[in-house]
Description:
Oligomer: single chain
Largest sheet: 4 strands, antiparallel
Amino acid sequence: xxxxxxxxxxxxxxxxxxxxxxxxxxxxxxxxxxxxxxxxxxxxxxxxxxxxxxxxxxxxxxxxxxxxxxxxxxxxxxxxxxxxxxxxxxxxxxxxxxxxxxxxxxxxx
Length: 109
């Protein structure tokens, strides 16, 4: 996990010396986690084909409190941040000319 991004099925908590695995016993990944905040919330999607798919809006968006490991569904129209820095979520989007942009939005709540 570097720069607020996460792309593996397991999430370590270095302070508590614990880890959580979000992979099913048969190897399928029900959650793809893409971004982790400084406050211990991970964002991702269930049923996404991978991180790029989840960030592009694929699957169903979720937020996971890494202290409990319990995922919570987010509204289906929520876009996932590609990163979070100092409480500001960074969101990637492309304009009509297919130019990539990043927009920052302060975290709510």
